[in-house]
Structure formats: C-alpha cells, structure tokens
Design brief:
The longest helix has 19 residues. The protein is mainly β and 367 residues long. It has 4 helices and 27 strands. The N terminus and C terminus are likely disordered.
Length: 367
Amino acid sequence: MKIIFLSIQVVIVFFFQACATKEVVEERTIMFPQYPEKPKILYLTTYRGGAKDSEVSALDTFLGEAKSEKKVSNIIKPYGVGLQDGKVFVADTGSDAVFVIDEKSRELKFIGNGAVGRLASPVGIAFDKDKNIYVSDSRERRINRYNINGQLNFTLGDRMEFTSPTGIAIDKKQHRLYVVDTKAHKFKAYDIASKKLLYSVGKRGVEDAEFNYPTNVAVDQRNGNIVIVDTQNFRVQIFDKDGKFIRKFGNVGNKPGTFARPKGVGIDSDGNIYVADSAFNNVQIFNENGTALLMFFGGGGYGPTQFRLITGIYIDENDKMIIADGFSGRVQTFQYISDKWIKNNPQKYNEITAPPETKADNKIEKK
C-alpha cells in the first residue's frame, strides 16, 4: 500500500511540475503549399475551449474533474463546427452542448445546456440568413434552432420524422434546410418558414442518389447545389437545389483522390469542394465538379494542421474555415487564400509570401 501511495504522490508531483514548466514555442506561419509555391491555405489558430490550452491541466483529467460542471471549459469530442460574427461554434458530443467561443476575447458561452432546448447529442451546425443557429440532435432525432442569444425558438422533427439526423446545411437564398438522416440513408429538404418537407432523396444502395450511411452536407451558395458525403460508399454526390442528381466522385482507396472514411464537407466561394477524411486525417480539395484533385493538407498528429479523427468542416462567406479534430478535443481554423482575399488583405498576403530568410524568428514564452 505504501508503494502504491508513493507512486500516486510521484505522479501528482509530476503533473504539478508539468503545469508549472515554462514552454518556449516558435510562432511561425504555416501554409499550403509551402514557399516558393503560391499558398492557398493558411493556418490561423487552434481552440480547445474558452480558456487557454494550459488552464485545464492534465491534473484535472487525472483527478476526474475535467467534465465536472466547474471544469467543463474544454472541448471533449467535437463534430459539427461553424463560424459567425467573430464566434466559433462547436457541437461537442462529449459534453452534450454547443461551445460558443469569442475569437478575440476567448470568452466562452454555451448553447443547448439549459432547461429549455437542452441537447442530448449535438452533431451538425448551420446558420440561416437571420443568424439563427441550427443544431441537429441525433439522440433526440430533431433539429433545434436558437437565436443569437442562445434561446430556443424552433424545433423540427421527432422520432417519427428522423432516424438519426447528423449533418445539416442551409441555403440562405432559398431559405431551405437540408438534413442528412444517416441511418435512413437519405437526406431531406425543408422550407424553413413553414417547416414543410419539400422532398426526400435516397435509400440504401450503391446507385446514383442512393446512400450507405451518409454523414455530412454542404450547400454551394452560388447555385444552390447540394453536396452530400456518402461515407460508406466512399464517395461524394452532388444534387441541384430540387434534389435532382447531378454527378458523383470518389471511390475507396489509399491514394490522393480516393477516400477511406470521408466525413466533413465544405465549399469555398470559388466552388471548390473540401472533403475531410477521418482515416487519412487530412482534407482533400476538389474542383467544383469533383473531376480534379487540386491539393490536400493535414496529416496524423497533434500539432498545428495535424489531426486525430478529423470530423466536421465549415467554410464561411469570407472563406475562413474551421475543422473539428475529434480525438484531440480541439478545432483549428484556416483561411482559403482566394483572389478576393488577396485583394482585401494585400499587406498580410505580402507578409506570408515573403521569402523565409526575410522573416525574423518570433519566439514567445508560454506558461
């Protein structure tokens, strides 16, 4: 017993020392592809919750306090993500709530953890033109809508309507909500104002407009096309705004342009399609037709631009991107460097594209 007690003491001392140790890290610009090629993706930052990464220590986890009411300030198991008005939204299936993190202050709030509109298993996130926040709840089999203050003002569906609602997306021009029902192997389109079901597409199968456990959806806001990740058919299917099949791309494999476990999907302002693969732990970028792989970024690991069980992805109207790193309990943000972004940010673009030898090393000290 003395030996066991001594071992525990040693472990606790180690944890305290680790928390108190100062770590010197290098701030550097990470982009893809790397210099001297023209960059297209710029890494921005990482969020683990409202507190700084070091504020919920390993000791909290060791003592079993990381998920207590007092300590739940760090993301546990993120899936759906979103960006709106300078805030990061994270559907955390580990804490059964949506994290809302202010990008500047890092102030943390929650949606779906109150008495009204409580979430049981939040998965997908979407926003309408009025800035309402939609969250799919796969366990309760419904979609909840909250206003900008986090108050519930809308519900859609029940156990008769959905089997397992997961990915959701909104066409802001058509004011339509698209819901992927994973276990029913289909997606549904709704008019938001009336909550009326407009159409339903899919059944289990391998033919066009059939699915095998689809997971996520994105809308091309330019033309209203709907992009569905058909996860266990290892492909992506594209439909027009009325649910008519247009095309598909992808197949199972272990080389660029193929999929192993595709999950998240997003579309930038140029129509390029981003597919996150939780087996490859990377994001592959295809042209708007899916006929060409333009590039990919990411890989397995715990550092910046690395992932462990990558899941959801979201790209806002300014081509800012957020990606959920499911196993690592964090989300990372990136910027797609479009021609529009370069025009609006010429100084920043010149800074990040300057030759490496002209950039001074920038080291900061973290406690």
